[in-house]
Records
---
Amino acid sequence: MNLADSRERHEGPPRGRPRSEAVERSIIEGAVKLLEDGVPLADISIERLARTAGVGKATIYRRWSGKEELFVDVMRATEPPDAELPGTSMRDDLIALLEPLRRRGLASRSSALLHNVYAQIKTSPKIWAAYQATVIEPRRRTTFEVLRRGQRDGELRDDVDIEVINDLFVGPMLVRAVMRPEAELPEDLAEQIVDAVLTGLRPPGR
Amino acid sequence: MNLADSRERHEGPPRGRPRSEAVERSIIEGAVKLLEDGVPLADISIERLARTAGVGKATIYRRWSGKEELFVDVMRATEPPDAELPGTSMRDDLIALLEPLRRRGLASRSSALLHNVYAQIKTSPKIWAAYQATVIEPRRRTTFEVLRRGQRDGELRDDVDIEVINDLFVGPMLVRAVMRPEAELPEDLAEQIVDAVLTGLRPPGR
Amino acid sequence: MNLADSRERHEGPPRGRPRSEAVERSIIEGAVKLLEDGVPLADISIERLARTAGVGKATIYRRWSGKEELFVDVMRATEPPDAELPGTSMRDDLIALLEPLRRRGLASRSSALLHNVYAQIKTSPKIWAAYQATVIEPRRRTTFEVLRRGQRDGELRDDVDIEVINDLFVGPMLVRAVMRPEAELPEDLAEQIVDAVLTGLRPPGR
Amino acid sequence: MNLADSRERHEGPPRGRPRSEAVERSIIEGAVKLLEDGVPLADISIERLARTAGVGKATIYRRWSGKEELFVDVMRATEPPDAELPGTSMRDDLIALLEPLRRRGLASRSSALLHNVYAQIKTSPKIWAAYQATVIEPRRRTTFEVLRRGQRDGELRDDVDIEVINDLFVGPMLVRAVMRPEAELPEDLAEQIVDAVLTGLRPPGR
DNA sequence: CTATAAACGAGACGGTACGTCGTGTCTTTCC
DNA sequence: GGAAAGACACGACGTACCGTCTCGTTTATAG
C-alpha cells in the first residue's frame, strides 16, 4: 500500500540506497507481536513500534503516513488466505465462504486484530476505503459470483436484490463477530445460517 | 453512568456547592455539536471539549473518568427513542424494530456518531460492556420477546436457536450500516429483509 | 528575563496555579551543574535539561523560548557581584573594576560559562542584545563614571574620546580572557595594564 | 586542513578516481554564499550545505569530520591577505597591523563571518586550537617582531612584558569588534589607539 | 580494452532533539 | 466544597539533522 511512498511518482531507475524489505517486515511483525501480546491498540504508538522493531521513527514515516495506514498493512498481513470453494453446490460454497469469518472470532490473535484494529481503521474514511477496496471487496465479488451461479442453477430465488441476498448470508455471521465477539460460536454456525436463510423461518406448512 | 462520580460513596446530606446540571448539559451538547460539525473524533480532546464548553478540565474529570466514558453518555443522548411496536403481528413488530437502524445510516448527525464514536467505544472493553448493557441489551431483550411471541403464535419456527434467529433479522441491516454506511438504503429495506428471511431464499416449488 | 512569559500582558490578579519558583531555580541550577561538570554546551539539550531537573519540557518552554534565552538567565545567575570601588583614586578604582575579569579566566566554573555560553549567546543577536543591556552595560556605565571623575580630578587626559579610553583599559584584559583563556594570568595583571596605559609605552625621556 | 583526509596515510600512487577540486571549492563557496545571504550559522546544516552545493553528504564527510572543521577552511578562505608593513617606523607598522581588524567590523560579509562563525568555532577547543595555530598565531608572531624591533630602536619601553604590550595594542581594537560590532568605528581608530597607548593617558606634565 | 578502485549523487538507515499538544493531577482564587 | 484557570510531569506527535551505510554510475590508473 504505502500511500506515503513518494518514490512511485518519479520516472527512471530508482536512485540512492534502496529501501530494505527486511526493515519493512520487522515493523509489521513487531506490530503483530504487540497485538498478540494483548497490548491495547491505543498504547501502540509509532514511537513504541519503532523501539520494538529497532528502527528509527523516520523509517516508519517514510513508508506510511501514520498509524492507520500502517495498520492496513498489518491487517493484510494477518488475513487468512482466501477460502477454497468445494464447488459441489452453492450451499457448500457459501458455508466455505462464511467459515473463516466464524474462525476469526475465536483465535485470540485474529480476535485482537479484528475487534480493535478494525475499529481503529474505521475512524479514518480514507483508510477504511483502502481496506475495503483491497481486502473486503474481492471477497464480496467472489460471494456475488457464487450467488449468481446459484440463481442460474436454480438453487436461489432471482426475484430478490443480490446485494440484499449477500447481506442475508454475511450479516448474521458478522453481527456476532462484531457485536458479541466474546460469545462462543457453535461449530456449525455457518451451516445453520445458510440453511435457515435458504429454507426460511416460517413454520413448515404455512 | 458517571463511573467517576465519587459523591455516591458518601452518606448524609451533600456538602458544599452542588454540581451544576447546566455544566453537565453544556459539556455533552458541546461534544454533540463538534461531532455534528464534522470534527473527527480523534481531534476531540478533553482539553478542547473543556475550551468549547467554557469549563475547567477538572470539572469534566470530576464526572467522567475519560473520553470513552464521556462518550457513552454522548451516545445515549443521541439515541432515538425506543420504537413503538404496532403489535398487529410479529412481522410488523420486527419491521418497526429494524426501521430505526436503517434511519441511522441516513441522518448525517447520527451517522457520524454511529460510525466513529461507536468504533471508538469498541476499543475499550469496559466501556463497550457498559454501552451494551445499558443501550443494546434492552433492545435485544425486546426483540427476543417479539420473536418468542411469534413462535407461540405459529409465525416462526421453533426448531432454530432464538439467538441465531435474532441475528438473521438484525445482521443484514447492521452489516449495511457498519460496513457500507455510505451506500443508499432502500426505504423498504426492513420489509425486504424480514419477508425474505421468513420465506427463505430457495426458489418456490423446491 | 523570561521573554517568553506571556502572563505579563494580562491585567488583573493572576489566575490559575502560579508558576513555581522552586522549579525555576532547579532548572537554572541544573544547567549550571552540567556546565561545571564539563558537559559541552552543544550537548546540553532542552530535553536533557528537563531530565536533569526532573521537569517537563513544556515547563521550560513556558518560561524561555529556547536555549539561548535560558542561558542568559544562567549567565546572570553566575555573574560575580559588582566590584566594590575603594574610591581612593581613579587608578585604584580601575584596578578594582578589572580584577573580576581576570578572575573569570581562572575559575573553571566561570571559565566554562564565559568561553562557551558566551560564544553561544553571541550567535543570537536578540539574546546578545538582552545580555548586553542587562549585564554589560551597567558595568560600562560605572566605568565611565570612574573615568569622568578621573578627568575632573586631573588623573586622566580629557582630549581623548572616553569610549576609546574605556577600551584601552578593558580591551587588554578581555583579549586575554577571550582569545587565550588557557594562558595563565599574572596576579598583578590589572595593575600592570592600568599603570602602563596611564604612563604610556614610550621609553621615558623621549 | 582536511583532518579527515585518510588518503595521506597510504603510500604509493593514488588509486581510483581522484577527488575533485571543483567539488571542494563549490562546497566552501556555497557556505560563504549562505553566510553572505544572512543565513544564521545555526541554520546551516551539513545536509543543507550538501543540497546547496549539489553534492552528496558523504562527499563532505570525506573531507571534513564535521561542521566546525569545515568552517575553519571557510574562515581561511575569507581571511584578508596579510597586511603589508610600511617599515618606516614601529608606530606605522602597528597601525598597518591593526587596520585590517578595524575593517573587519565594517564589511557585512566579514562581519557575519567574524561574529558568528568565530563564536561557533570557539565552542570546539580542538578546532579553536587549529584556527589559532594557522591563522592567529602567524599574525601574533609578526606583531611581536615589530614590537621587539621597536624596543631595539628605542621606540618602546623594554621593562614591560612583551605579551602585555601586544595586548595593550590589539585588545582595544578587538574589544570593539567582538563586544560592540554594530558600533561605528572611526576611520583613524588604529592611529588613535597606537598614539594613546604610546603617549599614555596621564595628563601632560604630571 | 578490460579490470580495478575510489569518488560521486542519491537517499535509506538508527538515532537524538526539536517544539507542540494532550493526558490526568495539583494548586491557586473566587464564589 | 464546586468551579475556572492554568501549572505540572509525562510522553507521543511528526520533522529535521546527525553521521554511517548502501546503491548505481563515473572517472581515473594499471595491466
---
Amino acid sequence: MQDGQRIMGRVAMPYDVFAANCPTRLVLDRLADKWALLVLERLRGEAVRFNQLRRDVEGVSQKVLSQTLKRLERDGLVARTVYPTVPVTVEYALTPLGLNLADTVSAFAHWAERNIEAILAAQAAYDGREGAGA
Amino acid sequence: MQDGQRIMGRVAMPYDVFAANCPTRLVLDRLADKWALLVLERLRGEAVRFNQLRRDVEGVSQKVLSQTLKRLERDGLVARTVYPTVPVTVEYALTPLGLNLADTVSAFAHWAERNIEAILAAQAAYDGREGAGA
DNA sequence: TCCATCGGTATCCAAAAGATACTATGTGAC
DNA sequence: GTCACATAGTATCTTTTGGATACCGATGGA
C-alpha cells in the first residue's frame, strides 16, 4: 500500500493515514474542520484581516475563528502580520505551504458545489425510504 | 442570493460555500470529518465489511463508524449491502459519486503524507517561539 | 457622553465525540 | 449443555469540543 518514501536521504517511516499513531493523522484531524477549510479557501489570492474574514466566512464566531487561525498559524499554513495602526490591524495570509494546500481544499469545495444536487437527491431518496419503512 | 437556481436545468452555479445558508455548507460540514475521510479513502478500490473497516481505520469506535457510514450512505456516497449469511455480513462500497469524491479525498490524504514533516517543523518552531516568548 | 470599531479573550452551555457495555443470532470447542 | 467467539450494530455514560454571548483596552466620531 505505502512504499517507503525517502525524504532528504533519510529513509522515512511509510506514513499511513490509517495508523492511529501516524503524524498524518494530526494533519487530517486539523484539516477535517469546516472552518479551517473555509478560511484557507477565502485566503487564496489575498491577505484578509480578522474581522473581514469573520464577515466573509458567514456563521463563524470570533472564538472559533480565532482558534482556527491560531491552529493554522501553528501548522505553518497561515502567516499572521500585525500592523501597529491606530486600531491595531492584523492581516492573515497563506504561506507557500498553505497555498499549496489551499489548491487541494479548493478542489474539495468545488466538488461540493458541482455535486451538491446529487447529494441532496440522495438524501431525499434515503429519507423517503426510511420514512416509508418506519 | 441563490433564488434563481434550477434543479433540473443545471443552469449556473449560484452556490457559494461562504454563504451560511448555502447547501454546499452541508456537504462541507459532512466531509470535514476525519473519520468520513478515512472511510472514503479505505473504501477506494474495494468493498469492506463493517468490522474489517473498524480494524483498518485504527482508533474509530463502533458508534462513530456506524454513524459515519450511515451519513455517507444517506449522502449517496456509500452503498450498504447485506448478505444473509450465518453471522450476517454487511459490505460497504463506494458509489460512483463516492468514488468521484474519494479521488479528491485521496489527494488530501497524500498531501498530508507529503507535507507532514513541514507541518511538524512549523509546529515545533511555533511552540519554540511561544515557549521562549511567554 | 455615548457608541462604534479594531482584534481578540473569558465564560457558559449545548452538542458531539469517544469509551464501554450490551443486544441478538448462530457456530464450534469442551 | 454451556462457554466463548464471531457477526453488526445499539444504548448508555463521560469527556471533549463547538458555538453563543459578554467583555476587554484603546481610540475616534457624532
